[in-house]
Amino acid sequence: MDIEAAVNVGYQAAKATSGGQNANYIPFLASVPSDLLGVAVVTTSGEVFKVGDADYQFAIESISKVFTLALVMEAIGPVAVREKIGADPTGLPFNSVIALELHNGKPLSPLVNAGAIATASLVPGNDADAIWAAIKDAQSRFAGRTIALSPDVNSSEQATNFHNRAIAWLLYSAGACYSDPMQAVDVYTRQCSTLVSTIDLAMMGATLASGGVNPVTGTRVIKAANVAPILAEMMMEGLYTASGDWAYTVGLPGKSGVGGGILAVVPGKLAIAAFSPPLDPVGNSVRGQVAVAKVAEQLGLNLFRPA
Ligand code: DON
């Protein structure tokens, strides 16, 4: 089956699926129309396939964790990332405080909130604005266009991020936050508040799929050697407590966000992205998971089931 047909099958399968609810703990996210649905694939040769609301821009949320991780991986290397943050699933919700308590304050994964705040604390830069500029630039180089903050999303999140601030102080008290903790939460919250389309997400994933080079701009964004550890982190924790189920059924490194976006990367080939705001109780897009899984299935992309 060709990619265009597979993207359409994925879109139709998602369209026929219902259930879930928009994230309601961040006021902006609750207000996004629930029926939006976009699916996109970008290949390592830069071909773009899209259907539905694939141009609609939404909050990147937790998917940003992957790209800040990439920035820190470049700065300190995978050995230090694993030592300071970790590379294991927590087995607990993405904002869990218990997970921290159980592991002496070590976050275990850069893809849960605690680990992402620790990751943000490791981005080189003299102040919050310099660090934020580096994060925004990294997202932009992955996407191949200038990615911008949504002031609406950011103010909605900054006004409600008390739980993340508590996590940052716990990290700090355990010696696992490497900057001022409130600065780390500030930049982490900003990185979650940028707007991307489904096509942007697929392009960002395709940059990972092509060994760190954006397939359209041709820019090397990260070292090829850093791609595998990033994808390993995605396989372990990218869909939170559903990461094991996702590996079992879809067999691809993925990452979701509470804005309704979801991304899966097929190394050497392509990336699949989808967007639909209603989430399951774990925090993953209900229709987004169906769309990505269906496209992957149609194209025979499960990494554990070689063709
Ligand atoms: O930290 C938060 O709660 C949000 N800004 C992002 C969380 C998120 O997307 C987790 N997702 N599934």
Distance between the first and last residues' Cα: 14 Å
What share of the residues lie within helices? Answer: 40-55%
Topology order in helix (H) and strand (E) letters: HHEEEHHHHHHHEHHHEEEH
Low-confidence stretches: none
The number of helical elements comes to 13
Overall geometry comes to globular
Number of strands: 7
SSE layout and pairing:
Elements: H1 3-15, H2 27-30, E1 38-43, E2 48-52, E3 58-59, H3 64-84, H4 98-102, H5 113-120, H6 128-143, H7 151-158, H8 162-173, H9 181-192, E4 195-196, H10 198-209, H11 227-237, H12 243-249, E5 254-256, E6 261-266, E7 270-275, H13 286-298
Antiparallel strand pairs: 1-2, 1-7, 3-4, 5-6, 6-7
This protein binds 6-diazenyl-5-OXO-L-norleucine.
Residues 61-62, 94-95, 113, 157, 164, 192, 256-258, 283 line the site of 6-diazenyl-5-OXO-L-norleucine.
Key descriptive features of the protein:
10% strand; 307 residues; two-stranded antiparallel sheet; 7 strands; single chain; binds 6-diazenyl-5-OXO-L-norleucine; alpha+beta
Structure, explained:
This protein has 307 residues and is of the alpha+beta class. Helices cover 46% and strands 10% of the residues. It contains 13 helices and seven strands. The strands form two sheets. It has a five-stranded antiparallel beta sheet with strand order 2-1-7-6-5, with helices on both faces. A two-stranded antiparallel sheet has the order 3-4. The longest helix is centred in the first third of the chain and has 21 residues, at 64-84. The model has no long low-confidence stretch (mean pLDDT 97). 6-diazenyl-5-OXO-L-norleucine (DON) binds next to loops. The site of 6-diazenyl-5-OXO-L-norleucine has 12 residues, from loops.
